[in-house]
């Protein structure tokens, strides 16, 4: 997969992650990885924290999340 933001400028760069909000593939240059504010609602997948134990939503909210720069900017404007 190629970076969405790079592709807009005609550049072909491999992705290293996908934005947790919009799902766009992003390269190292076009991502932000940080703890985001607590999100309301539920995730559409069930995750395992380890040793077969299901994660609590509170555990997931403390993870650092990867966002593309446009989604990060929109998120920052709203918190």
* Number of alpha- plus pi-helical segments: 3
By helix and strand content, what is the structural category? Answer: alpha+beta
* Biggest beta-sheet profile: 2 strands, antiparallel
Describe the global form: flat
Low-confidence stretches: none
What would you note in describing this structure?
The protein has helices at residues 4-8, 57-61, 69-77; strands at residues 17-18, 25-26, 31-35, 48-50, 53-54, 64-68. The protein has 79 residues and is an alpha+beta fold. It has one domain. Strand 1 (17-18) and strand 2 form a beta hairpin. The protein is flat and about 45 Å long. The N and C termini lie far apart (31 Å). The model has no long low-confidence stretch (mean pLDDT 80).
Keyword list:
UCP037465_Znf, DUF2180 family protein, single chain, two-stranded antiparallel sheet, alpha+beta, 79 residues
Spell out the blueprint of helices and strands.
Blueprint: H1 4-8, E1 17-18, E2 25-26, E3 31-35, E4 48-50, E5 53-54, H2 57-61, E6 64-68, H3 69-77
Antiparallel strand pairs: 1-2, 3-6, 4-5
